[in-house]
Amino acid sequence: QGKQKKARKYAVMKRMISLRDERIKEKDRAKAPVKKKEDPSAIKEREVPQHPSCLFFQYNTQLGPPYHILVDTNFINFSIKAKLDLVQSMMDCLYAKCIPCITDCVMGEIEKLGQKYRVALRIAKDSRFERLPCMHKGTYADDCLVQRVTQHKCYIVATVDKELKRRIRKIPGVPIMYISRHR
After folding, report:
1. Pairing of strands 55-56, 59-60
2. Radius of gyration over alpha carbons of the chain, in Å?
3. CATH code: domain of residue 153
4. What is the mean pLDDT of residues 144-164?
5. C-alpha closest to that of 91 among 119, 73, 69, 75
6. How far apart are the C-alpha atoms of 37 and 32, rounded to whole Å?
7. C-alpha distances in angstroms, 27 versus 22, 31, 34, 78?
8. Which of 12, 68, 125, 157 has a C-alpha 20 to 30 A away from that of 24?
9. What is the mean pLDDT of the chain?
10. Which GO BP terms, alphabetically (predicted)?
11. pLDDT tier at 23, thresholds 50, 70, 90
12. Domain count of the chain?
């Protein structure tokens, strides 16, 4: 009648002989790792991450009254929705002079959003905003802001994006400004 079907076995691997197997010739066999005894009198070296000198414990000494605030795309959009004057509300929040800074990446992101966000683009091109040039490839604004804040801890980051806030909270000494309840 017919050939009996044999069930296929899934995820079956060919078995390999380990290099320590006694069937392998002595010269090809892997040597067992030899443990070195540690010398107690030897100087021990450890990798300790270098912390920036501007941080005094968790307090950032580089933050001072003309505050430089890195503004994200969605912060501008949410301030328009909440009908807030961006610079004035920043000054009300911090009780000091604020210089809003905008990077080339954020500017490119707003321009890519098109005609619907022309008010945000007009606000971003305001003369009160300081323009920061970017020297890296790509226009992903979140990576740009995180990189800039990691290098120079003199900025406050203004964003509403949860993912960006989560990334910035991991960097010590960098404050975050956000909009909630229309303020």
Report:
1. antiparallel
2. 29
3. 3.40.50.1010
4. 91
5. 69
6. 16
7. 11, 10, 17, 71
8. 12
9. 84
10. ribosomal small subunit biogenesis; rRNA processing
11. confident
12. 1
Beta-sheet strand order (sheet of 155-158): 130-132, 98-103, 67-71, 155-158, 176-177
pLDDT digits (tens, 9 = 90+) for 80-134: 999 999 999 999 999 999 999 999 999 999 999 889 999 999 999 999 999 999 8
CA gap 103, 109 in Å, rounded = 10
pLDDT mean over 151-168: 91
Q: How many residues does the chain have?
A: 183
Do the domain assignments include residue 6? Answer: no
Residue 65 belongs to some domain of the structure: yes
pLDDT of residue 49: 67
60 falls within a domain: yes
Surface-to-core class of residue 100, CB atoms within 10 Å of its CB (0-12 exposed, 13-18 middle, 19+ buried): buried
Q: Is residue 16 part of a domain?
A: no
What sign does the CA torsion over 168, 148, 105, 64 have? positive
